[in-house]
Write a structure and sequence with these properties.
Length: about 170
């Protein structure tokens, strides 16, 4: 078995593709969950692929003193999701066609409630609740302090509470 030569730091990114694949492997599923949350109408696998290409291209910029490899990889994902949304051409869905009857059912719609949040609150909710990141990892993805993440999540919960209440 051939091992990649890693820089002097043990947590630096490997320079060989096979070692890099092993290094990012544990985070791919979380990247995919985050991509699916951030761009539900786009192909999450394409977004993750673009994020991994970007990580490979920028691998020498990884600085373990600024966060974990997981947080670094997951911070690239929202940027790639934004880029993918900007590249996408508007398309009509069946729900947009004239004469299409929309459901009037009273079930709680979490997706629509979360969509009403400010972009920064949505990112915090998506990272923490849907991608399963810790507060520290969410802070690294958002580029802010853990206290800011906690405050942002509290504000988001306060705004979501009335939207998600179920009346009987």
């Amino acid at each position: 078995m051939e091992y990649a030569i890693v820089n002097a730091r043990s947590d630096a990114i490997p320079d060989r593709p096979a070692a890099f694949a092993d290094w990012i492997g544990p985070e791919v599923e979380r990247m995919a969950r985050l991509a699916a949350r951030l761009a539900p109408d786009l192909d999450r696998d394409d977004i993750v692929q673009e994020a991994l290409v970007r990580a490979w291209q920028k691998r020498r910029q990884f600085d373990p003193s600024r966060g974990t490899p997981a947080a670094w990889l997951l911070a690239i994902t929202p940027d790639q999701a934004r880029r993918a949304r900007r590249r996408r051409r508007p398309t009509a869905t069946l729900a947009d066609l004239p004469g299409r009857v929309r459901s009037t059912d009273d079930r709680v719609d979490v997706e629509h409630a979360v969509a009403r949040l400010a972009p920064r609150q949505r990112l915090a909710v998506d990272c923490f609740y849907f991608a399963g990141l810790s507060v520290a990892e969410t802070a690294a993805v958002m580029g802010c302090s853990e206290g800011t993440v906690k405050s942002t999540l509290a504000d988001a919960r306060r705004l979501l509470r009335p939207l998600l209440e179920v009346s009987e």
